[in-house]
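Predict the assembly for these two chains.
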Amino acid sequence: MDVQLNISTDEEAITPTCDFTYSWCLSCGLSEDEANRFTIAVSELISDIILFAYPHDGRAYFDLTFRHTLSNVEVIVSEVGEPFDPDRHRYNPQEAIQQGNFEGAGFRLIRRFTDEFFFINKGKEGKEFRLTKNLDLHDLDEMIELSRSQKPKEPEYEEDEVPEVQFQISQITPADAEDIAKLIYRTYEYTYPKEDLYFPKKIEKTLLGKEKLGVIARTEEGEGIGYFAVLKKEDSNIAEVGEAVVTPAYRRQGAMSKMMEKLINTARNQQLDGLMGKAVTIHPVSQRVNQKFDFVTTALMLGETNKVTYKGFDEQYPQPVSVVIDFLPLQTPHKRSVYLPAEYADILQDTYNELKIPVAPQNPPAYKMADQSDMELSINYADATALIVVHKYGPDFRSVLSDMLESLEKQEDLNAIYVDLPLDNSATPEHLPILRELDFFYCGLAPMFHRQSDYLRLQKINAELDLELVDVFSDFGKKIKSRVADEYC
Amino acid sequence: MNIVKTHKEGNKLEVKLNNAFNLTARNKLENRLPKEITHLQIDLSDCRLVDSEGVIFMFEWQNTGNTLELINPPDILFEIIEILELREHWNATITETN
């Protein structure tokens, strides 16, 4: 869960903010020393903001957002004070010693005490500083070794000797958390990419928080043999198909299909509007399964995850992995008004048709621009990607977006940057050329992805990709790939 | 509350800092420093966090010919001194009582 603090530019706020930061770091799993170093980095940053960001404003406010995953902690500091670029304030020890000029000392400490330090200039929308620290997964490594030594030996069956097993499927509850963790490591050892699933407490927490919806398959003896779950998106009433596993000894008996059926029905009964899944394109297996359940491919995201070695594939895949977005509407969609940019109207309309979502394309009227643009940035450090979601267009749209991109590209070697544009916003068609000038091209439709609305997803790729290696299964997916390839080349 | 105790004796001021030696503590300390003080003893026994504001204050204090005595400074202080490349010019007296 994110924590957000709105801090006054009063120096008395520094110590309590740092006290909170330190405690929060500890509770996220940082060691005392690392928590202290990270807290010092935060202290340096907020001290600089208090001292220098608002020279003409006696009392202003700025925001701190605390986020954490199993693998890192992140603090985002947002302020709208005077323009500033930390790169122009480099520490010089000779000047410090000889002239007492310590300018840039704080930023040197920030860089040393964090794993990533990002400065995002958002133009008139202000500035964002992102500090991250990776969590030491030493404990997890120990667990891996332990589990390998204790891992129960799985029976090995020839294909024609698979035992007939009766199993029952039920919706998961917090009490299933430990069985799910066991199921994951019995199946994948510790190669499953979602590390949270090795921690029963983490699973339990997501179930108690209603963030996860899933089913578990059990034998008549109660042994867990399969698990399938979707994760609800925070900003929309859809969920992502995220976690699926069947113990090898019980595969090829329809457990996965039955779990998927049960999960779709459960999600539908819970009034979710849709399910989406990201299926890798290094092989067609996941896409094929999705299509069997009437998912429609709506987008192709190039370079979405970093290079990976997948069990069962002899060679390492030679480039960042692209994924397709597969989507399944769960309720009867209402007819919606959309503003489709002329350049993509045909393929977007075709995608809506494939999804059987009725739309009424509108001609953009004279629209009223917001006072300022509203854009939300999230960075996936592990996969070297970023997503910018546009909520509102203001007169500053071009400059804010350009500044954000320049900041991102100057500081980090990102494989891909994606931008979501709201299709229910009449200003979207007119703003598309700005994105095209900035080298963004078609990615696809992101149905109901944010605030219950549909978005046009564009992408800008910084890695060299061979699209021949991108394996798209469905016919419509191939059509999207063709469109993407035309613009990528 | 960053400063928990101060004691003045002649030209010496003894200060005990709590929790953090940061911008807040620095400003409070500067406000409590009479001109006649030339010897500053800072007890950092309960101070976990020291940032650049604290380090710069101490560096400037000793570099203007004053005496600086630190009691039980945390390890992070020396790490910051190394990072800021100030070690060769750091002359504080260190007292360990723990």
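The beta strands of chain B are 3-9, 12-21, 39-50, 67-71, 93-95. Residues 3-95 of chain B form a domain with the Transcription Regulator spoIIAA fold (CATH 3.30.750.24).
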